[in-house]
Design goal:
alpha/beta; OB fold (Dihydrolipoamide Acetyltransferase, E2P); Rossmann fold; seven-stranded mixed sheet; 20 helices
Length: 672
């Protein structure tokens, strides 16, 4: 992605226009997503070899990957098991010792080497007697006029595909850079060249660094350019949106808001009050609201959503609130019905298994279009084709991270540019907030309502389960309730020691008897799910044995204990969401994470939850440990593909890109 280039730029020429790139090579490059000259120049090395210094074969170890060079003194291919299996081996000698290099079941490697060749290899020893590497990276050292780009320098090592030699690709990039370097111009807006190299210099430093630090310097410059392109796209999208979209007047007149707040029985927090002021300003503004509300579990987002809905309802418009699961939609329906129906507001439910509009307004032609201003609560069923939402003034999307960008837009298109409030209890790392939600205004609720119990978290090994069950029984005997969470539904879904909820349910019932337990997972029918949750809310069962389905949608203040088995199987943000089901009443609560993980990284991840209940710290740690692709799912999130940008560490570059692309007067918009 070279920002300033156009389709007529020389850099947009197809890769087949380069000398030496015929049909076969072009097909190989296509598999690497290299289609143009630009793609080739931005093909990022995955590492560098300092070929000014080598490790003597005698000094190689099993602990550290290193580069060595030597001459092939022997080689051979051995087949076994009737020819179905093979091992190809070369023996290198550098004068200090010999190194055996083996490739298992890759017989075609034989044609790449010959006795007498001088070869680079990179890898770790798998054996020391004799010294042996399995499947090392390798490259034959050849003479010729371009040999200087392969030896006695810091050499780039690129991602490859079958049949494409490292040396050939490095030579192609060298020749292409020599020809096109002057065509690489600065983007607009350009960064301060006192702080960054020129773009052309960055591309050269990327491929042929003179110092080991050059590769990272180049990566940062090229990452900045990617972030600038993204910010420009988001600002243009926002500008176009504001030019064509005029806001519906949804500021309200407080005739419903005042009695609603009076009946709550508690005061709003300062954070809630501040956010509602921002939202009201948006709803009265010239452009439709596009706001992201971040609030940690238990911070009171639902009350803010209710107040926002009342502003639109007071103004004579309908409101749609979409939740990712039927469980959460049902809970919202109950809460909003209890809160708003005494004020004369209709609340309707629209999910795949339940539609109150049909039951409350029977008769031909009856439906949403004949109802007074109404709050429609539902799941994806809200944006199905057969369901119309006339006079839609506001769309609220809860647990935004569970929806894709396209789904969000699909619901908004139901109306004439309605206001949009998206909410998430999964705090968004700042880098993701500035990229994924960079076109939204952002509000953060960082204060919990008074009277909430403290949540303590403990990580325990599986051999501590007997003591944990004893503790849970004591809490239930004292009148409290518990969640027991497993990562899988059924036994056939499991591998190794991963526990399944259907298999463990009977065991939990026996361990906790005479106290009663209920079972909840995603494969139950909706009516059965609702029945289980209803009896749990009524304390007719004391333990709910469930999957992560409960991470959103259950609010039982009397539940003060949560046991999560195989905790290492969950992401940190998901564990934090699950933990948010407890600590919702006045009693002290306890989250116990059982893990049989042996590796230190898993223990380090879970220790974060012991140390903090700060969702933003947890989100940052989750991003660092899992990366954005696994954390969000690239297709679901709408994240762009970055060649150079690193959403874990490049917060300073993202902020720099925002400054570069900011209009002269930013106005009063407040973003992350």
């Amino acid at each position: 992605m070279l920002p300033p280039e156009t389709k007529t730029s020389p850099l947009a020429a197809p890769i087949t226009s380069l000398w030496g790139v015929g049909g076969e090579r072009a097909a190989q490059l296509t598999r690497l997503e290299i289609h143009t000259v630009e793609d080739l120049l931005l093909h990022r090395p995955r590492r560098y070899e300092d070929r000014r210094h080598f490790r003597a074969i005698a000094d190689l170890s099993r602990d550290e990957a290193a580069t060595a060079r030597g001459t092939i003194v022997a080689q051979g291919l051995k087949r076994f098991r009737g020819g179905r299996k093979s091992v190809f081996e070369i023996v290198l000698d550098d004068g200090t010792a010999r190194l055996h290099c083996r490739w298992w079941n890759l017989p075609f490697m034989e044609k790449y080497f010959a006795v007498g060749d001088e070869v680079f290899v990179f890898g770790k020893l798998v054996e020391t007697k004799p010294r042996t590497m399995d499947h090392p990276e390798s490259e034959v050292i050849e003479g010729g006029e371009e040999s200087f780009i392969h030896i006695n320098r810091i050499a780039p090592v690129y991602p490859l595909t079958e049949g494409l030699p490292q040396r050939w690709l490095r030579g192609l990039i060298w020749r292409t850079l020599e020809r096109f370097e002057t065509q690489i111009v600065e983007p607009e807006p350009a960064p301060d060249l006192k702080l960054f190299p020129t773009r052309a210099n960055a591309v050269r430093m990327l491929h042929f660094p003179e110092a080991l630090t050059d590769g990272e310097i180049a990566r940062r410059r090229l990452a900045l350019d990617e972030f600038v392109v993204l910010q420009c796209e988001m600002r243009l999208r926002r500008k176009n949106f504001e030019a064509r979209a005029h806001a519906l007047p949804c500021g309200g007149d407080n005739r419903l808001m005042k009695p609603f707040l009076a009946q709550l029985g508690f005061q709003l927090t300062r954070a809630q009050t501040h956010v509602l002021r921002e939202i009201r300003a948006d709803m009265r503004g010239p452009h439709p609201m596009r706001r992201l509300l971040q609030g940690d579990v238990g911070s009171g987002k639902t009350v803010v959503a209710a107040c926002t809905a009342l502003m639109a309802l007071e103004s004579g418009f309908n409101v749609a609130l979409m939740a990712p699961t039927e469980i959460l939609a049902e809970q919202h329906f109950r809460n909003f019905s209890r809160w708003l129906e005494p004020l004369g507001v209709r609340v309707e439910l629209q999910t795949g298994s339940r539609k109150t509009v049909e039951t409350r307004a029977p008769g031909a032609g009856s439906g949403p279009r004949h109802l007074p201003s109404t709050l429609f609560v539902g799941t994806h069923a809200l944006f199905t084709r057969g369901f119309e939402l006339p006079r839609l003034g506001l769309v609220i999307i809860d647990e935004q991270h569970k929806f894709g960008v396209a789904q969000r837009e699909q619901l908004v298109r139901k109306g004439d540019y309605p206001h949009l409030l998206v909410m998430t209890a999964t705090p968004i790392p700042r880098t993701l907030g500035l990229t994924l939600y960079g076109d939204l205004d952002v509000s953060v609720m960082d204060e919990l309502p008074a009277g909430r119990g403290r949540v303590k978290t403990f990580v325990r090994a599986a051999d501590k389960l007997p003591q944990v069950w004893k503790f849970i029984r004591e809490k239930i005997a004292a009148g409290r309730q518990a969640y027991v969470v497993y990562p899988r539904v059924e036994e056939q879904d499991t591998t190794g020691d991963v526990k399944a909820v259907t298999r463990e349910f009977e065991n939990v019932r026996q361990v906790l008897a005479p106290f009663r337990a209920g079972l909840l997972h995603g494969r139950l029918k909706s009516a059965d799910k609702e029945k289980v949750m209803a009896v749990f809310r009524a304390n007719q069962i004391q333990a709910l044995v469930a999957t992560a389905l409960i991470e959103v949608g259950l609010d039982v203040p009397n539940a003060t204990v949560m046991l999560i088995e195989n905790a290492e199987r969950f992401g940190l943000a998901q564990l934090h969401q699950l933990r948010g089901r407890i600590g919702r009443g006045a009693h002290e609560s306890f989250c116990i994470l059982i893990s049989g993980a042996k590796n230190g990284e898993a223990r380090e991840r879970l220790a974060v939850l012991e140390e903090t209940t700060d969702g933003f710290r947890i989100a940052e740690a989750d991003l660092k440990l899992r990366g954005p692709g696994e954390l969000l799912g690239r297709q679901q999130s709408g994240l762009p593909r970055f060649r150079f940008g690193n959403l874990v560490d490049d917060l300073d570059l993202i902020r720099h890109a925002r400054v570069l692309t900011a209009p002269p007067a930013e106005g009063s918009r407040k973003n992350i």
